[in-house]
Design goal:
Elements (H helix, E strand, L loop, with lengths): L4 H11 L6 E6 L4 H16 L3 E5 L7 E6 L2 E8 L7 H11 L8 H9 L4 E7 L6 H14 L3 E7 L4 H6 L7 E4 L2 E5 L4 H7 L15 E6 L3 H11 L5 E5 L11 E2 L8 E2 H12 L4 E5 L3 E6 L3 E5 L4 E9 L3 E3 L15 E2 L2 H4 L7 E5 L3 H11 L4 E6 L8 H8 L4 E5 L1 E8 L3 E8 L5 E5 L2 E4 L3 E3 L29 E3 L11 H21 L1
Parallel strand pairs: 1-2, 4-6, 5-6, 9-10, 9-16, 10-13, 16-27, 18-25, 19-20, 19-25, 20-21
Antiparallel strand pairs: 1-3, 3-4, 5-7, 7-8, 11-12, 14-15, 15-16, 17-26, 22-23, 23-24
Helix pairs in contact: 3-5, 8-9, 8-13, 11-12
Length: 509
């Protein structure tokens, strides 16, 4: 039995929602993964009379495809879609059976208009929380358009293929045999990358907003909801809705929610915002802000949005080390997500740069997967919480190097080592390893503001206790500000504060 009783109970409820028959074509060998895959599909067939199983030969073994009885849909799982990918399997069964995907009609129309043959391959790990978004988006495209097909490939089940293609980060997507992209991508982002994006002209000539929120993370979502509830014209423009929490796996300090995952929280935020009359403009990056009679925000697509007030909530991104080799070997051994990419380094030596909470947590997680972890900390002591340090030092396959400065990440076509300097002696040392995980904090996404808004020397927007900046009518919230603590719950509160501050400004002006 592959599925435990609790999962089977939940799955049984979903399978009752199937609208038509589904045929699972299975290509299996004599290996352990094949045996488990056969057990899974046969277990699914016993749970619903709508699911049929047929043994065949597919391009990869072990794998299985999800089809209608009379039609190949092009959805294939090479590997066992459990862990984070279990939802991808459930949605594939429902959508292939005829249940409509929960996608905006505008997006559905875009997918159906795509001409030409497109075969996507996504390389994933079952512990990756970003991978399901890509897998599910590509599956939806395959269901909607007969010219599109998609195969999900579990890197753990196809190690030789992953190494042959030099894949060192997940998700990594290939299109018609050529590299297409890596990292989390939404359906909208994939369409944009294919040249099928929504016409940018629709953002031009919009009526001025009362409140325009720039950024779609926790702070931006909170600000938009608070503004919309006041009954004023509200817009939100975001590079990717959800922001940094999309890259966060476990969230355990969001009060009243014992545990959740970043992508799930991001989806909840977007769903909540869309409950109100908010003009959501996703996949758009702000380029310039200027105060005139109204406040103007120019987007990179050339459109100019106007508003009486603006709330900046552009968040932050992972800070780079800034040493030779980091940019050159990104996704070729240099990684930023231990949960996503850690399994690709199973049995190998890796380093973690950073001794704060995120760095030590990464090292602890990686120690259970890789052969050995070396932690490099610039200061003379680790900054992580003592409970995390105690756990770290108890692990037999971890070395902690303090008071060292990373000098270079070395390699040829991929990472082969790291060079650091002992700060007290000035002596350079080199370690041979396969991967480097960078965990050294955040940098605010405020470069585009130039000198228009007052910022700290670290680039953080300076705000008062109403969320107001030095420019009348411009407010800011969240991790892009000089708030001393970068936490989801604090960002949400500051978003509400900035929105109420903006509303008060509108009343007084």
């Amino acid at each position: 039995m592959i599925l435990d009783a609790n999962i089977k109970e939940q799955l049984a409820q979903y399978l009752q929602m199937m609208e038509g028959d589904v045929l699972l074509k299975v290509s299996a060998g004599s290996d352990d993964v094949s045996r488990d895959m056969l057990a899974l599909v046969e277990e699914l067939a016993t749970m619903s009379s709508r699911i049929k199983v047929e043994k065949t030969e597919l391009q990869r073994t072990p794998s299985f495809s999800v089809n209608r009885l009379s039609e190949e849909t092009g959805i294939t799982f090479a590997g066992i879609p459990l862990g984070h990918e279990f939802t991808s399997l459930v949605l594939a069964l429902l959508q292939v059976s005829g249940r409509a995907p929960k996608v905006d009609q505008k997006i559905i129309d875009q997918v159906k208009r795509i001409e030409g043959e497109y075969h996507f391959e996504s390389y994933i790990s079952l512990s990756c929380h970003n991978c399901p978004d890509v897998v599910q988006a590509l599956n939806v495209m395959s269901v909607l358009n007969p010219n599109i097909s998609h195969t999900m490939i579990d890197g753990g089940a196809f190690k030789e293929e992953v190494e042959a293609k030099n894949i060192m980060a997940v998700p990594t997507v290939f299109l018609n045999g050529e590299s297409f992209g890596s990292g989390r991508m939404s359906l909208e982002e994939i369409l944009a990358k294919m040249g099928s994006a929504t016409d940018a002209s629709e953002f031009a000539n919009k009526d001025p907003f009362d409140v325009l929120v720039v950024g779609g993370g926790p702070a931006g979502a909170s600000a938009a909801i608070y503004a919309a509830r006041k009954g004023i014209r509200t817009g939100i423009v975001a590079e990717r809705f959800g922001g940094q929490i999309l890259d966060t796996l476990s969230i355990e300090n969001f009060i009243s929610v014992k545990s959740t995952e970043g992508p799930k929280l991001a989806a909840n935020l977007e769903e909540h915002v869309k409950e109100y009359d908010v003009d959501v403009m996703n996949l758009q990056r702000a380029k310039r802000l200027e105060k005139k009679d109204l406040i103007e925000v120019e987007l990179e697509n050339g459109a100019v949005l106007k508003s009486k007030t603006v709330i900046l909530s552009t968040g932050a991104r992972w800070r780079n080390v800034g040493v030779p080799g980091e940019a050159e070997f990104k996704n070729k051994g240099v990684a930023y997500c231990p949960h996503c990419d850690g399994p690709l380094f199973a049995g190998k030596d890796v380093a973690v740069i950073g001794g704060g909470n995120s760095g030590v947590e990464a090292a602890i997680d990686l120690a259970g997967i890789v052969k050995h972890v070396t932690v490099l900390e610039f200061n003379s002591e680790l900054k992580a919480d003592s409970v995390l340090q105690d756990r770290l030092y108890s692990l037999p396959n971890v070395t902690v190097l303090k008071n060292v400065q990373t000098q270079e990440i070395t390699g040829t076509d991929k990472v082969n080592g790291i060079t650091y300097v002992e700060r007290d002696t000035g002596e350079a040392q080199h370690i041979e390893l396969a991967g480097v995980f960078v965990q050294i904090g955040l940098v605010p996404n405020t470069d585009w503001l130039s000198d228009t808004v007052e910022r700290t020397k670290f680039g953080e927007i300076i705000v008062d206790n109403h969320g107001a900046t030095n420019i009348p009518g411009v407010f800011a919230a969240g991790d892009c500000t000089n708030s001393p603590y970068k936490q989801i719950i604090i960002s949400m509160g500051s978003g509400a504060t900035a929105s109420l501050g903006a509303f008060d400004y509108l009343i007084r002006n």
